[in-house]
């Protein structure tokens, strides 16, 4: 027979009330933000290494 006890995972008292409500919604299986692009706007992107290599080669061969 096991005894289930409550224990503290994290102290949430310093967080904003909207963050705590977001946790509650997520724990219940809800979705906080359906359009993730609005939550994390992309300001600058860099090409992956293989794409950067090809771009340098194209510039060196003066195709661009």
List keywords for this structure.
0% strand, mainly alpha, single chain, 64 residues, elongated
Helix/strand layout:
Blueprint: H1 17-27, H2 36-39, H3 49-60
Describe this structure in words.
Helix content is 42%, strand content 0%. The mean pLDDT is 81. It has helices at 17-27, 36-39, 49-60. It is elongated and about 70 Å long.
Q: Roughly what fraction of the amino acids lie in strands?
A: under 5%
Q: What can be said about the biggest beta sheet? A: none
Structural class label: mainly alpha
Rg: 24 Å
Question: How much helix, percentage-wise, in residues?
Answer: 40-55%
**Helical run tally:** 3
Low-confidence parts, pLDDT < 50 over ≥5 residues? none
Shape: elongated
Tally of DSSP β-strands: 0
Outline of this structure?
The chain has 64 residues and is mainly alpha-helical. The chain has helices at residues 17-27, 36-39, 49-60.
